[in-house]
Design brief:
Order of helices and strands: HHHHH
Number of domains: 1
Distance between the termini: 30 Å
Largest sheet: none
Radius of gyration: 15 Å
Helix content: over 70%
Shape: globular
Structural class: mainly alpha
């Protein structure tokens, strides 16, 4: 599961680096930028919990699949819709940059809340 997320992320950035600075209208079948931020935040948080399990030498295969599917279910998206959205945003670097700036802000806010508890 972690490998899948890493591969998706790497492909996402490879496509992004190879594309121009074009901005485009987001097609109906593509996850909106706002929702994509939330989806990516949840995937990064899920990945962090999976890594904690790995550090405790737990069998994480089933858990990682469960976490991945939980994020999809929470956001009411399919694997194909996620894949197509990754592809779309990787071809539109300005949109991708905006999304990841917001992802970093959300993750930083979450981290601050956790640390302050």
């Amino acid at each position: 599961m972690i490998r899948k997320l890493v591969i998706i992320s790497v492909l996402f950035f490879v496509y992004a680096c190879g594309s121009g600075d074009k901005e485009a209208k987001i097609p109906d079948n593509i996850i909106s930028q706002k929702e994509m931020v939330l989806v990516l935040v949840d995937f990064h948080l899920a990945d962090a919990s999976i890594l904690q399990g790995q550090q405790r030498h737990e069998d994480i295969n089933e858990f990682s699949n469960y976490r991945f599917n939980s994020v999809l279910k929470k956001h009411k998206i399919s694997r194909n819709q996620l894949k197509e959205s990754f592809k779309f945003y990787s071809e539109h670097i300005k949109d991708l940059e905006k999304i990841y700036k917001e992802v970093v802000v959300e993750l930083s806010t979450t981290q601050s809340r956790i640390i302050s508890k």
